[in-house]
Amino acid sequence: MIMDWSIGLLVGIGLFIALEEFWSQYLPAYKEMWWVLPISIASLFNVTNLSVGLYDIKLRDSNVGIFRRCLVSGAMTFAVFQLIVFNIFATSALHPSILAVYILAIAILTFTVRYLANSLEMFGITKKRVVVIGAGERASIIEKRMRRESDRRGFTLIGFIPLHSDKKDELKRENVLPAETIDELEEFIRENEIDEIVIAPDERRGSLPLESLFDCKMAGVVVKDILDFIEEETGQVAVNLIYPSWVIYSNGFQSRHYIRVAADYMLNVFLASIVLLLTWPVILITAMLIWLEDGRKKGGTILYKQTRVGMDGKLFEILKFRSMRQDAEKDGAQWAQKVDNRVTKIGHALRKYRIDELPQLFNVFKGEMGFVGPRPERPEFVKELIKEIPYYNHRHNVKPGLTGWAQLNYPYGSSVNDSLEKLKFDLYYIKRRSILLDLLILVRTIEIILFGKGR
């Protein structure tokens, strides 16, 4: 983010220095405060980059895809300044062609720096060096969860140190160090300049070199449990590794204070009011299109009500624009599929761009949902999922949301396994939820809408 902000600022300063005579003659407003515009554009460009996913460290996209994201970010920045900022501060307005060239230069330079950084590994020296103690079933989760290079952008994994207490060795492609390394741990850490030790034995009791770990910790090496490591690097909680004492002693899972609950509700109502004011034409047009497709002749409803499980397990009726045939569930409740022949023609577009979720603004007004939180599930499925997935019921400790951390990181789910994967992200959100995290999720949801990643 700092790099992109610096690029925007430098391009702006260069442009203003090169055209100093122009500003003095035609836009005297910039004579004394010329630096305000480059700082403002660079800052907004950072926000729009965030909204199109450019700061997602796990982003897996081609160079063409990244360039497209840079252009979309630039277009959003241009639109905000041209349609909003320059209408409020008319005396500071730039000619559209000058503003377009300015922002295009920022977008191209941002992509170029990113391309060079990725190709030449310009920032590889910033990676922390990590070693894992344990090479059994528990440690193998790291290999399974972080197989790709993009999953390891923040660290270099030096290897796994096996322990006598490990269960069956499941590591396939990792560097397993000699077993005697554990007896010379401090020397190994020092010689290999290790920054972080991850504790991942299958059995802790009597297997860890506590004195050596203590000395490493005092020497400045980070010692971290595998659950914390996976949470930090992947943005999810490894449900299958959780043990009660970790939940009890770890940070997060904060209590619901009544002041915070009231503040959350007021913020959600405020946001819902703004979105409703901005999208009411879309809501009217969508209602008309649904009615024209199969409501006029077939008597299909425009809105669709469905029972969902809310906070503390309370049931409520969720509102959606109907995107499926009227008889879609004549045979009972079914998981929605990626390719679903029950979806209407207009329904495909509604689901892709999340337009079908707009009526849920009224659920927000009623206090049944928030803008951010785990997506509410149907009670028929919840009964099954609670039996199949450990800790599943804990996702109901917060209000369900229109969007959530799981929707950003695991956009499609239609089975028990998919629900397990989404639960890992939901628990991460519940553990770390804050206003800043909510704002991050809201901004990044724009990426889902812009690039049609919804369903």
Written description of the protein model:
This protein folds into three domains: 2-120, no CATH class; 127-234, NAD(P)-binding Rossmann-like Domain (Rossmann fold, 3-Layer(aba) Sandwich); 258-450, no CATH class. The protein is globular. The protein has helices at residues 2-18, 20-26, 30-33, 36-51, 63-88, 96-120, 140-145, 185-191, 210-218, 226-234, 244-249, 258-298, 345-352, 361-365, 379-388, 405-409, 416-432, 435-450, and strands at residues 128-133, 155-161, 196-199, 222-225, 303-309, 315-321, 370-372, 401-403. Helix 1 packs across helix 6 (96-120) and helix 4 crosses helix 18 (435-450). The longest helix is centred in the middle third of the chain and has 41 residues, at 258-298. It is of the alpha/beta class and 455 residues long. The protein has 18 helices and eight strands.
| Number of distinct beta strands | 8
Helix-strand pattern: HHHHHHEHEHEHEHHHEEHHEHEHHH
The largest β sheet comes out as: 4 strands, parallel
Number of helices: 18
Helix-and-strand structural type: alpha/beta
* Spatial shape: globular
Uncertain segments are: none
* Tally of domains: 3
Share of helix, binned: 40-55%
How is the secondary structure organized here?
Layout (H helix, E strand, L loop, with lengths): L1 H17 L1 H7 L3 H4 L2 H16 L11 H26 L7 H25 L7 E6 L6 H6 L9 E7 L23 H7 L4 E4 L10 H9 L3 E4 H9 L9 H6 L8 H41 L4 E7 L5 E7 L23 H8 L8 H5 L4 E3 L6 H10 L12 E3 L1 H5 L6 H17 L2 H16 L5
Parallel strand pairs: 1-2, 1-3, 3-4, 7-8
Antiparallel strand pairs: 5-6
Helix pairs in contact: 1-4, 1-6, 4-5, 4-18, 5-6, 12-13
Protein name: TIGR03013 family PEP-CTERM/XrtA system glycosyltransferase
Organism: Psychrosphaera ytuae
Membrane topology: Multi-pass membrane protein
